[in-house]
Amino acid sequence: MFDLATRRFYLCVGHRDDLADFLPAALRGGVDVVQLREKDLDDEQRRVSGRLMAAICRDFGVPFVMNDSPFLAAEVGADGVHVGQDDVSVAFCRELLGPDAIVGLSTHDPEEFARALEQPTTYRSAGPIVATPTKPGRTGTGIEYAVDCTTRSDQPVFVTGAVNADNVASLVRAGLRHFVVVRALTTASDPYAAAVAIRRAMDEALDNA
After folding, report:
1. 3-state secondary structure labels for all residues of 120-152
2. pLDDT tens per residue, range 66-117
3. How far apart, in whole angstroms, are the C-alpha atoms of residue 194 and residue 209?
4. For domain 4-207, is the CATH number 3.20.20.70?
5. Burial (0-12, 13-18, 19+ Cβ within 10 Å), 102
6. Under DSSP, is residue 66 helix (H, G, I), strand (E, B) or coil?
7. Is the Cβ–Cβ distance between 157 and 121 less than 8 Å?
8. What percent of the chain has pLDDT over 70?
9. What is the dihedral sign for C-alpha 182, 151, 131, 114?
10. How far is CA 11 from CA 57, 95, 125, in A?
C-alpha cells in the first residue's frame, strides 16, 4: 500500500504514441504518482495504454491510477482510480477495488470539498487554481481555495492548474504541498529535464517551508 502523504509530484497524461519513452523519462525526473487521464479514446485503447503504464510504474515503485473507471483500473492492474463529481461514487470504487486501493476525488468548490471529507478517499484534489485548457469551461478556483482545502484535510490534497517549475515554489510558500502537473511535462521537448526542474524547485521550497 502506497503512502501518498510522502508523494508530491503527480503526473496526469493521456495516451501518446511515445508513452514507453515519455513515462520513464518523467519518472526518472522525479514524478512519484501517475494517472492515465484519457477522455477521448475508447476503452480498448485505454486498456492498452493503462497496462503499459501500470507495468512501467510498477518497475519504478510508483503508484498508477486510472481516471474515471474503477472497472478499467481493476482490469489493467492499476493501484487505484481517480473520479470526478459526475463519475461513479467513491463508495462504489472502494467496494469494487478494496480497502487498500487508491481512490482520489476531484473537488472544485467548498461544498464539494466538504462532502469529500466524509467519503472514503485516499486523497482529494483541489482546483484548477487557474483556468487551464485541460479543464475546458472551468474557471480557476484561486489559490486560497486550495490552501483552505489543504488545511482542512486529513489526507493529501493534490492541487491542479498550470503547476510548473516557475510557480511551484510560490505555491509551496502559500501552504500547498502536493501538486498535479500536466502541460509542463506533456508539452516539454525534454520531459526528463522538465521533471527535474519542477522537482528541484519543489523540493528546495519544501526544505525551506
Report:
1. CCCEEEECCCCCCCCCCCCCCCCHHHHHHHHHH
2. 999 999 999 999 999 999 999 999 999 999 999 999 999 999 999 999 999 9
3. 23
4. yes
5. buried
6. strand
7. no
8. 98
9. positive
10. 12, 26, 13
Amino acid identity of residue 160, one-letter, is: T
Place of cell 472497472: 71
Question: Residue 193: its pLDDT value, please?
Answer: 98
- Cell numbers given for 74: 481493476
Question: What digits encode the pLDDT tens for the residues 48-68?
Answer: 999 999 999 999 999 999 999
d(Cα 105, Cα 37) in Å, to the nearest integer? 13
Which helix (H) or strand (E) segment holds residue 104: the answer is strand 102-107
What is the CA angle 32-38-40, rounded to 5? 170
Q: What angle do CA 28, 103, 183 make, to 5 degrees?
A: 45
